[in-house]
């Protein structure tokens, strides 16, 4: 369900709301034409096999902070612990620290970053599709008529939303990092 656009002095929050609304419209159009679409609650393959630590703009971080602040303290401690572990992890793939592994869902779903909203519904021309399950369906011809969103256009819009940092860096910058606490 789209949210009402919010405003800020610099317009970043309103721009993020507009981007979210545009992404949601593309996602709904794809799902309406394909009720069996793979990307939905419980399909957490992308969250469990990230190629890199999630990167967020300043506007996305502001939104994510709202979601984190609404979590029960024990959930926030779990996320902080997972972020701290991720900060020191050198191997890939990585598991998103915002993922509730038992439920297969994001703990801050309504506040999730744009990359999470577009995954499986948008294509980056140079890199192709990321989800191997969707790639397999495309190769079989099952999704030939899908009108994918253009990730390059999304990335250009994100560039206007403030500096980009890794999730672990945002946590450290805000003093939310665990610094090795277990």
Distance between the termini: 37 Å
Main beta-sheet strand count, sense and barrel state:
2 strands, antiparallel
**Strand arrangement in the largest pleated sheet:** 1-6
Report low-confidence residues grouped into runs of 5 or more.
Answer: 1-10
Structural class: mainly alpha
Helix percentage? 40-55%
What series of H and E elements makes up the topology? HHEHHEEHEHEHEH
Give the rounded overall mean pLDDT.
Answer: 85
Radius of gyration: 17 Å
Beta strand %: 5-15%
Number of helices: 8
Total beta-strand segments:
6
Can you walk me through this structure?
With 182 residues, the chain is mainly α. It has one domain. It is 45% helix and 8% strand. The protein is built from 8 helices and 6 strands. It has helices spanning 12-33, 45-48, 58-69, 73-88, 114-118, 132-139, 151-158, 167-173; strands spanning 55-57, 99-100, 105-106, 122-123, 149-150, 164-166. Strands 1-6 form a two-stranded antiparallel ribbon. Strands 2-3 form a two-stranded antiparallel ribbon. α4 (73-88) crosses α8 (167-173). The longest helix has 22 residues, at 12-33. It is globular and about 45 Å long. The termini are far apart. Residues 1-10 have low confidence and may be disordered.
Helix-strand layout with pairing:
Blueprint (H helix, E strand, L loop, with lengths): L11 H22 L11 H4 L6 E3 H12 L3 H16 L10 E2 L4 E2 L7 H5 L3 E2 L8 H8 L9 E2 H8 L5 E3 H7 L9
Helix pairs in contact: 4-8
The gist of it:
The protein is mainly alpha-helical and 182 residues long.
Short descriptors:
182 residues, single chain, two-stranded antiparallel sheet, mainly alpha, two-stranded antiparallel ribbon
